[in-house]
Amino acid sequence: MRPDDQPPEAPLEDLHLAGCKNVAPVLNRVGDKWSMLIVMVLATGGRRFSELKREIDGISQRMLTRSLRGLERDGLVSRTVTPSIPPRVDYALTPLGRSLTAPVRALGDWAIAHIDCIRAAQASYDRREADEANAR
């Protein structure tokens, strides 16, 4: 299967056969907040480091560097250095990285659609915790 093809849904048994130790690092990379935001920004086209930093609100230079290195190591992002003064460095999604945009977008859409329910559940939980703490 090519990286940009949509993979078939894996049955739960297949995930166990693949081993959580193999799946967990991938899920950690694609599931972290900054990596997801970087993938979605790069889904609209390549960017320079400074452009990514401007577009991703709240990310530090160090975290952007670490996230880009991790995404590059995993084959999701390519880094192209153009010799100039100063050197120009561009980042873009690889075909494998582009194959990740649909699941990331779906997860983002789900989060947006359910944010009110999630906030209500959090508030309810926090009230219960506070009540239990006060009862001690």
List the helices and strands and how they pair.
Layout: H1 12-18, H2 20-31, H3 33-42, E1 47-48, H4 49-55, H5 61-73, E2 77-82, E3 88-93, H6 95-99, H7 101-135
Antiparallel strand pairs: 1-3, 2-3
Helix pairs in contact: 1-2
Protein model, in words:
Helix content is 65%, strand content 10%. With 136 residues, it is mainly alpha-helical. It has a 3-stranded antiparallel beta sheet. The radius of gyration is 19 Å and the shape is extended. The model has no long low-confidence stretch (mean pLDDT 87).
What is the total tally of β strands? Answer: 3
- CATH level-3 fold name: Arc Repressor Mutant, subunit A
Any idea what the shape is? extended
Q: Compute the gyration radius: what is it?
A: 19 Å
User: What is the CATH H-level superfamily?
Assistant: Winged helix-like DNA-binding domain superfamily/Winged helix DNA-binding domain
Question: At the first level of CATH, what is the class?
Answer: Mainly Alpha
How many domains, in number, for the residues?
1
Overall mean pLDDT stands at 87
Stretches with pLDDT under 50, minimum 5 residues: none
Topology as H/E string? HHHEHHEEHH
Q: What is the topology, as strand order, of the major beta sheet?
A: 1-3-2
The helix content, as a percent range, equals 55-70%
What is the second-level CATH architecture? Orthogonal Bundle
| Biggest pleated sheet | 3 strands, antiparallel
Structural class: mainly alpha
Number of helical segments with 4 or more residues: 7
Q: How much strand content do the residues show? A: 5-15%
User: What's the N-to-C terminus distance?
Assistant: 58 Å
